[in-house]
Amino acid sequence: KQEVTQIPAALSVPEGENLVLNCSFTDSAIYNLQWFRQDPGKGLTSLLLIQSSQREQTSGRLNASLDKSSGRSTLYIAASQPGDSATYLCAVSSSASKIIFGSGTRLSIRP
Amino acid sequence: DTAVSQTPKYLVTQMGNDKSIKCEQNLGHDTMYWYKQDSKKFLKIMFSYNNKELIINETVPNRFSPKSPDKAHLNLHINSLELGDSAVYFCASSSLGQGARTEAFFGQGTRLTVV
Question: CA angle, A98 as apex, B68 and A29 as ends, to 5°?
């Protein structure tokens, strides 16, 4: 049974810092891994998608990596800004037509 | 043009009532999902449909009945609503092709409050 864990549960850093969010999963038989952002009271915004055959994806200040064999992914945010404050969710798509989510990392960027 | 749209956005109803939430996607995806986000903000899969056929039912009470009239729609009907059904419900879609699953897109959610 696929389980997805995100560490840390919450993170507060001053503006301008680079930071890393971690995601681990127990079953390496995945199609892809996706990082989402969720603002309070809002829906999910897709940030990056990494297919199982890929190692990393980049979009602007965001870089996501995937190590399928070890069941790990990281989301790197460069030069953080207050507008980056949100909950970041990691989700893996498995062969059973499921997308399994981690419990999220609540990120706060202090001005 | 919204990729995955849900209606209504907010739903307040009394215990024991029956209600429906509608979901439509215009992405041409073959798989649609319903998720429940509880008060602790954890997203849990409820149902998964592929080409209108039920694939996943994650031990959801049978008061919840999804219906997929076509590939672009997956509606959720809930009978005899209970206080514990209060949550945010998200619809999503993705597609499987050439051995890879596409990016999943989510609707904006329906906040259901049972009083």
Answer: 145
* Residue A9 pLDDT: 94
Pairing mode, strands B10-13 and B64-70: unpaired
Contact list, B35 vs chain A (CB under 8 Å): 101
Q: Which of residues 44-103 of A touch B (CB under 8 A)?
A: 44, 46, 49, 51-53, 87, 89, 91, 93, 96-101, 103
Q: pLDDT tens digits for B14-57?
A: 999 999 999 999 999 999 999 999 988 899 999 999 888 888 88
| Whole-number Cα distances in Å, A67 to A27, A29, B87 | 12, 12, 34
Cis bond leading into A40, ω under 30°? no
How far apart are the CA of B85 and the nearest CA of chain A, in angstroms? 17
HSE-CB at B16 with a 13 A cutoff on CA atoms is 0
